[in-house]
Write a structure and sequence with these properties.
alpha/beta; Spore Coat Polysaccharide Biosynthesis Protein SpsA, Chain A; 7 helices; about 25% strand; binds cytidine-5'-monophosphate; eight-stranded mixed β-sheet; about 220 residues
């Protein structure tokens, strides 16, 4: 089955507090984006095309850095919201399966990509990696008063890559009226069944300054 991966990397990274878009922040000698693209290409899922979605002003720089890839690579401009960026990538994706993988998850193991694609091959229309929730979860009101403790055994923390049969993802985005925090959320709203496979703690997303410190420490041991 031919497979494309869309890598949304057009976020500003405001919560990270660095003075450049998050995917272009350095992690011990290589940008977050270049580490993510190396991880994407190390997986054994038969990728035909990678569509990298970046801020408009960084398209040329990204193209120049992306020589020597094993498959076709497109670099396109993103939009204001993550879903706008994924939609821009979707316009260039080809093949039966489309994966969407956050640039901000540079240490995602190849095995996670492989589990997602295996479940797509088994017939699931939409597949997401997820982890059990380890902390106790409480619902609170506007004044931080606890209303209840939530049953965490039925909850999963969802990561990327999220995989879709191409027509299912196209349908999810065609129906998308408003923004969602992930692509599977749009698929759910379009009535598409979403299946969870095992994620991995290494697939964590760099969001806060603490995450960046952790990522830099990991990167030092990684190379
Ligand atoms: O902001 P957040 O960490 O949830 O973003 C997840 C991924 O989506 C990041 O890799 C980020 O660069 C990307 N993104 C994007 N376009 C946006 C917002 C986020 O490509 N407008």
């Amino acid at each position: 089955m031919s497979t494309s991966v869309i890598v949304p990397a057009a976020g500003s990274g405001t919560r990270l507090g660095e003075n450049r878009p998050k995917a272009f922040v350095d992690l011990s000698g290589a940008t977050i984006l270049s580490r993510t693209l190396a991880a994407v290409q190390s997986s054994d899922v038969g990728l035909d095309r990678i569509v990298v979605v970046v801020p408009e002003e960084l398209i040329e720089q990204t193209r120049a850095e992306l020589t020597g890839s094993r498959c076709a690579v497109d670099v396109v401009a993103g939009g204001a919201e993550r879903s706008d960026s994924v939609r821009a990538g979707l316009a260039r994706a080809t093949g039966e399966f489309v994966l969407v993988h956050d640039a901000a998850r540079p240490f995602t193991p190849a095995a996670v990509f492989e589990r997602v694609v295996e479940a797509l091959r088994a017939g699931h229309q939409a597949v997401v990696p997820g982890l059990p929730v380890v902390d106790t979860l409480k619902r609170v009101d506007d004044e931080e008063q606890v209303l209840e403790t939530v049953d965490r055994s039925v909850l999963r923390a969802i990561q990327t890559p999220q995989g879709f049969h191409a027509d299912a993802l196209a349908r999810a985005y065609a129906d998308a009226g408003d923004v969602a925090t992930d692509d599977a959320g749009l698929a759910e709203r379009a009535g598409i069944a979403v299946h969870v496979v095992a994620g991995d703690p290494d697939a964590f997303k760099i969001t806060t300054p603490w995450d960046l410190r952790l990522a830099r420490a990991i990167a030092k041991g990684w190379d």
